[in-house]
Write a structure and sequence with these properties.
Length: 644
């Protein structure tokens, strides 16, 4: 009897332990799912804001067309920058590489040892001398001009090809890929699918490694153009600034040659006549036969659509002189024969900017403002039409570094890990070979913060996302308050959750889960009603001048990126200075085109007061920096600021 009791006690303890283990396991699963949901919401904030910014960037194309029609003060070209390859040796002959230079010295023709030399130097944070940068660029342009619009390559069961997505200046990711997967060679070919530059701080180093690898293995390393291989995009997203900072003396020449190199990058790669690799995607009207034939070097920038001109100005059927924009400013010596047709331009834009979606059909890419969203039926139709089996593209950050959709016919690969913030996403590359499914390889550059527990990493990532979202909210504070008050019929200062979410989406247009995010953004009373003015209680935009009206502050802050790129175009010598007259003229055009209601006298007064040395010029970078957002918790340690 004693033995039976003991056995019953043991069985009871085992059942209790099992139940406890199940409770703990269930709690852990729920907790992890909750953290993953928060991480997903934070990622959606970053992505929505990024796409909205890109939408604004593409909308600038309309403004530039408008500006060219109205702006009568045409900047003269710098004759020093008009020269082409014929001055290559003359230009390089003027550059001296001093004996004191301790960085890598490349020897032409390049060999695989130069790839190793360059990687080792960049790992030690060395800067490649401008002489070698220019020599690499001249050689790269010369070789790219011999390439077709689409590079065709073959694999075999014993010879895979590696496909990498966006790198965006993240040099450590390229180092890791080459370390894990091996350097390019005849037996280890690569496709790099665009967006090598911008956002990250080492875009120049990435370009140099890729271009040198391409010069050593021109038939085994393939470079596709992305939407950021575009000099106008570089002005906004950081690469132009990086080049001018690293190469103060020869930066303008480097940028000029890069502008031309971008236009010669192939549009895509076709593998085994079965796999199409392009940066963005396709549309219902994608014509691969046409894309194989077009003169791709005519597409200078996505912000420079073909410009038909009325009256004295040329039409698409005419042959008169039109006005075009270059990195050096405005000029009028470009003819329409130098441009793609509107249809050809749209074909390339679709390939560079489009994104897949689960819904059938093809409709405008409202998130980015350019290209289209294409559904699984469009994918099947285009692939079947050209006897292809798969589309591999990049262009979108994915939490896992890759994503498969459209019944396995579309693969997205994104190779920049920690793209938005540390811990935000993994990077990935894939390998394909004839007759076998793609193989995926994921990674994440590990920093100290990545070693912290998941909840701490999610808190930090979410905190950054909420901070960015609040800055977007404060930039449109006046518009939000107006919509809030229109719905607040009782003038109580409160709205229901549904009303508040509707107002946020209506004004900001970010397509976010506002109801879930409300706890991070506003205060709610016991009845679930939202104090809508609490949206702005811990954040404001610093006024550069006390008397400036809040609406002007918000407007300049909201459009600061658009204004930056416009002024970079006008600032032809990249000095950071523009005249007061140029400032007024361009602002008036900008205000008219965007229907911004700001009194000219307010802006004139502000500009004059910020011209501290009264030399009649404006340091526009400093002008923009005068408008910055102040957070209530700026002085707190980030680890103390939680949005759990």
């Amino acid at each position: 009897m004693g033995c039976g009791t003991l056995s019953s006690v043991k069985r009871g303890k085992s059942e209790k332990a099992l139940k406890s283990a199940l409770v703990i396991q269930n709690w852990y699963r729920c907790r992890r799912a909750w953290l993953k949901t928060r991480q997903c919401h934070a990622l959606s904030i970053f992505q929505s804001i990024e796409y909205t910014d890109e939408q604004g960037q593409l909308q600038l194309s309309n403004f530039f067309s408008f500006m060219l029609e109205k702006y009568t003060r045409i900047l003269e070209e710098d004759p020093e920058l008009v020269t082409q390859d014929k001055d290559r040796q003359d230009y390089l002959g003027l550059i001296d590489v001093p004996d004191s230079y301790c960085g890598p010295r490349l020897r032409f023709p390049l060999t695989f040892t130069d790839i190793d030399l360059l990687i080792e130097a960049f790992q030690q944070q060395q800067i490649l001398h401008a002489y070698y940068v220019l020599e690499v660029l001249f050689e790269t342009r010369k070789l790219l001009q011999q390439k077709p619009n689409f590079t065709h390559t073959k694999t075999s069961p014993s010879k895979e090809i590696t496909i990498c997505g966006d790198l965006h200046g993240k040099l450590d990711d390229l180092f890791l890929i080459y370390s894990k997967n091996g350097l390019p060679s005849e037996s280890n070919p690569y496709v790099f699918n665009g967006d090598f530059v911008d956002r990250g701080k080492n875009s120049m180093e990435i370009l140099m490694i890729l271009f040198v690898s391409f010069l050593v293995y021109p038939n085994d390393l393939h470079l596709n153009r992305g939407n950021h291989e575009d000099f106008m995009m570089n002005m906004r997203y950081g690469f132009t600034k990086e080049v001018l900072h690293k190469y103060k003396l020869h930066g303008k020449k480097i940028l000029q040659i890069l502008e031309d190199i971008y236009t010669w990058l192939p549009i895509g790669t076709v593998i085994d006549n079965e796999i199409l690799v392009v940066h963005g995607g396709i549309s219902e009207s994608t014509d691969l036969n046409l894309l194989h034939r077009i003169e791709r070097n005519k597409l200078k920038s996505v912000l420079m659509p073909p410009i038909p001109i009325d009256g004295d100005r040329a039409t698409e059927k005419g042959n008169k002189v039109g006005a075009i924009i270059t990195a050096r400013g405005l000029r009028t010596n470009g003819s329409l024969s130098e441009q793609l047709t509107k249809y050809e331009w749209e074909q390339v834009i679709d390939v560079l900017w489009s994104d897949p979606r689960g819904e059938r059909g093809c409709y405008p890419n409202t998130g980015r403002g350019g290209g289209c969203y294409f559904g699984p039926d469009i994918t099947s139709r285009i692939l079947n039409k050209y006897k292809l089996k798969m589309l591999i593209r990049s262009h979108e950050c994915k939490a896992k570094g890759y994503e498969i959709c459209h019944d396995g016919k579309v693969i997205t690969v994104f190779s920049a890990s920690n793209y938005y913030e540390e811990g935000s996403n993994r990077g990935a590359y894939l390998r394909v070979s004839s007759g076998t499914p793609p193989r995926f390889f994921q990674y994440q550059i590990t920093r100290a913060t990545c070693l912290r527990p998941l909840y701490q990493r999610v808190n930090a990532f979410e905190s950054s996302a909420i901070r960015m979202l609040k800055e977007r909210m404060i930039s449109q504070k006046t518009d939000l308050i107006r919509v809030f008050q229109c719905q607040d019929h009782s003038k109580s200062g409160k709205l229901s959750l549904g009303q508040w979410a509707f107002a946020m989406e209506n004004v900001l247009g970010l397509n976010l889960p506002w109801r879930s995010l409300s706890s991070h953004l506003v205060t709610t009373d016991k009845d679930g009603n939202i104090d809508y003015m609490s949206s702005f209680q811990d954040i404001h935009i610093q006024k550069p001048v006390k008397e400036v009206q809040p609406t002007l502050i918000e407007t300049v802050y909201r459009y600061r990126s658009d204004l930056q790129i416009i002024f970079n175009v006008i600032d032809s010598d990249h000095s950071g200075l523009i005249s007061m007259e140029e400032f007024r003229s361009i602002w008036k055009l900008f205000k008219s085109h965007y229907s911004v209601c700001i009194d000219d006298s307010q802006l004139d007064e502000l500009a004059e007061r910020m011209d501290l040395n009264k030399d009649g010029s404006i340091d526009f970078n400093e002008f923009l920096k005068a408008f910055y957002v102040v957070h209530k918790f700026d002085k707190l340690n980030k680890s103390d600021t939680k949005f759990a």
